[in-house]
Amino acid sequence: MVDNKYASVFIREAVSSCLLCKNVPCTSACKKNIDCAKVVTSLRFDNMSGARAQMVDNTACVVCTSFDCMKACLKAKIDDAVPIYDIMGVLKNMEDDSSAFENGTTGAVGDVSLEVSFCGVQCENPFFLSSSVVASDYDMLARAFEAGWAGAAFKTIGTFVPEEVSPRFSTIRKESNTFIGLKNIEQISDHTLDENLSCIRRLKKNYPSKIIIASIMGQSVEEWELLARKVEDAGADIIECNFSCPHMAASGLGSDVGQSPELVAGYTAAVKKASKLPVLAKMTPNLGHIEIPALAAVKAGADGIAAINTIKSIMNVNLQSFASSPDVSGFTSVGGYSGKAVKPIALRFINDIKQNNEMKDIPVSGMGGIETWQDAAEFMALGCGTVQITTAVMQYGYGIIYDMIDGMKRYLAKNNYTDVSQIIGRAVPKIVSADRLDRSSTCYPKFLHNTCVGCGRCVISCSDGGHQALTIGSKAEDRPVMNAKKCVGCQLCMLVCPVGAIVSGSRVKNK
C-alpha cells in the first residue's frame, strides 16, 4: 500500500491536468477495455470511491506495457500526457477506504435514495440546472435530463427579448486554474415568450417525471401575474421569481427588485395570486442581509427561497488598453460573478436564512460555486433541499451529474445514511456567533515528519503571515520545528502545506 496522503496529493495534481476531452481518446485507445477517462473524471470531481469502482480489473492497467492511453492523450500536444498509468497504479495501491461500504459491511450504495420532496414536488434527486444559458432550450435540456439531472430552472422568461452583447463572459485565474471564477453580462432568455412556453410544454410532454422550474421576471404587477399564469398553463411544476439578476440593462429589474423588501413582497404576492404552483423567491447576494427581503417574500406567500444569484463584479483590467473584461468594443459593465470562488459566500447567505427563526423550516434551493457532490452535500447540510448548478456545467458539461449522483450515494452509504434528506440541515447548529466560540484553549498543529518533504512553505507563511513560531534547518532533510511559546494555533501552516504533512494536534487549555 502507498501512503494515502502522498497518493491523494499526486492524484489531485495529476488529474487536474486532464483536458476532459469530449471523444475520450485515452479510453478509445485502451486495449484492456478500461474506461480510464471515466476514472480520471471521477477523481477530478472528488469521487475517489467511484473511480476505484470503475477499475473492475485492478491489475489490467498495472501490468500494461503498451501505454496506448497515454500515447493517445491530447494533453501531450501541449506538454506531457496525463500520467494515466501512474494514476491507475497509485489508485490500486492506496489504502482502500471505500471497501467497507462497497462490500456491504455498512450501507450498500444501491440502497441509498436520493429522492427529495421539495415544496411538495417529488424530485428523483436534488440536482438541478439553474436558470441560465445551460437551461435555455429544448435540445439542451433533453440531453441534460437523459444524463440524469432531476430538473432545471428554465432560463428566465420575460415579456421582452433583450439585446445581447459580444463577448459576454470573462474568467479569473489563479496559477494554472483558468476558471476559479466567471463573470457574465448576459441577460434573460433571448427567445420570445411564446417560444419559451412551447419549449416547456414539449419538455413536460416528453419528460413528465423531470421537474421544470419556470424562472420569470416582470416589470410590473401585471407582467408578473401574466407570466405566472402562462408558465403554469404550459406545464411548469414550480415558479421561481428572479429578484436577483445583477446586470439587466433596464432599471427596475433583477437585483434592483431583490434589494427592496417592499417590491419583493408585492411581486411575490402577485405571482401567488395568479398561480397555484409553488413559488420560489430567488434572492440577490448584493446586499448585507439577505434574510430581510427573503422573509418579506415568505410573508407574502413564497413557498421557498432560491439563493444565491451572482455577485456584482468587475474583473480583469487590461493594463495596456485599460479596458475591463468582457471587452465590448472597449467597454464593459458590472456583471455577475459565479463559480467555485463564490461558494463560501453562498454558504454564508444560506446560513443567514436558515438561522432566522421565521425561515428555519422554509425550503431552500441552494446555488453558488457547486462543482462536485461534496459541494452539493455541504449546501444540503446547511439546510438546502435541492441544489442548482450553472458555472460547472458551462465548464465541464452535463456529464458531471454522473459523479454528483454516484459520489453522493457512496458518501451516504459509507456514513450509514439511507436517504439524502437525512443530512439536510445537519450543519446549521454548528454555525454559532463569534462570542460562543471556545477561546479558552489552543489547538496546536501536529507535524508528520515522515510525510514532510522539507520544502519550508510552512515556515515562510508562519514567518511572514503568522507568529514566527516555526524554524527549519539549512539541510535538505531538515524538518520544521515549532516553538510552542510563540504558536497561537492559527494553523496557517497546515493550510499551506502542499503534501498534507501538518494536521490538527492536541487542544490544550490556555494558562
How would you sum up this structure, described in words?
This protein is of the alpha/beta class. The protein contains 19 helices and 18 strands. The strands form five sheets. It has an eight-stranded parallel barrel with strand order 3-4-7-8-9-10-13-14, surrounded by eight helices. Strands 5-6-12-11 form a four-stranded antiparallel beta sheet, with no helix packed on it. Helix 15 links the parallel strand 13 and strand 14 (386-389). The two termini are 43 Å apart. The model is unreliable at 98-105 (pLDDT under 50).
Q: Structural class, from helix and strand content?
A: alpha/beta
Mean pLDDT comes to 92
Largest sheet: 8 strands, parallel, barrel
Q: So how many helices?
A: 19
Strand elements, count = 18
**Percentage of helical residues?**
25-40%
Side-by-side strand order of the widest sheet = 3-4-7-8-9-10-13-14
What is the strand and helix layout of this fold?
Blueprint: H1 4-16, H2 25-29, H3 36-44, H4 48-54, H5 68-72, H6 84-93, H7 99-102, E1 116-118, E2 121-123, E3 127-129, H8 138-147, E4 151-157, E5 169-174, E6 177-184, H9 193-206, E7 211-216, H10 221-234, E8 238-242, H11 255-258, H12 261-274, E9 279-282, H13 291-299, E10 304-307, E11 311-313, E12 335-338, H14 343-354, E13 364-367, H15 373-381, E14 386-389, H16 391-396, H17 401-414, E15 441-447, H18 457-465, E16 470-471, E17 481-482, H19 492-496, E18 502-509
Helix pairs in contact: 1-3, 1-6, 3-4, 10-12, 12-13, 15-17
What are the salient characteristics of this protein?
four-stranded antiparallel beta sheet, alpha/beta, 511 residues, single chain, eight-stranded parallel β-barrel
